[in-house]
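Here is one chain, start to finish.
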Amino acid sequence: MKTTHTENRLVPSHGSAPKIRFVFSFRSLRMAPWLLPLAVVALAGAGCSKEGPSFKTKLPATVHFFDAQISEDKGMFGEAQSELDKVVHENPGTRFANFAYLKLGDVYARKEEWDDAIQNYEMFLSLDPSGNLTPYVLYKLFEAHYKKTLTGLINPTPEVERNASPNLQLLVEFKRFYLLYPKSVYIKKITPYYLSARETLAQYERLVGDFYFRRKEYTSASGRYLYLLRNFPEYPHSEEVVKKLIESYRRDQEISMADEMERVYRKLYGAGGGESGGVSQSGGGELPPKS
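Its structure:
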């Protein structure tokens, strides 16, 4: 009987991965025993999808930063945010990811999404609390907290809010900044924000005090007025607040306290206090007491 031997060969197909056809004989194995493991590997590769192996290219972080900067300069903040998110997720625990948090804070700040800006600035500070950029980030964080307190579309201004916590947070941030970097060039930049927050908080206390006074809850009213005078001595309308405090004490039958505050008033302002000198109601709308 006549035996024919077909050589091992690769038969290309129309797909990207070649189909492999092997026809063996004992003679071919004796002549080339290394063909068997090669055939096993080739057959395993042939079981892949017709599209062939796919490789996910990971771009360097510097490329993402470059693309993010171009997008931000063009006002395409969503694209910039997407590129920076890739840096954070593809390079966790690195300086690239940390700096990306700072840039994300800047992007969100330009979008006036203050809560997200604050969150990313805080992330940067938690990962690098004492780096060279820390004073700058603290300044940007303080600025974001201040901008968060403003209201109005055309000319945003501080407003006496029902919730005073954003302005209280400004006082905390200012103390942190000043204790860490008392000689920083950014102190002058944030001081006006700090003073504005103090004035807004003082006005808030006065409005709440007036709210209690109108409801004839004089003990609560005097507590608010006294708190304002003790904690915000620079308040420009302190004289009127002292008058209202004296009046609250008298109406609450706290005669000794009223007399004491009247002596303080005469010493500070050189005139008499009492009911006749009550402060005019300020603000307009009523505020509920703090919870």
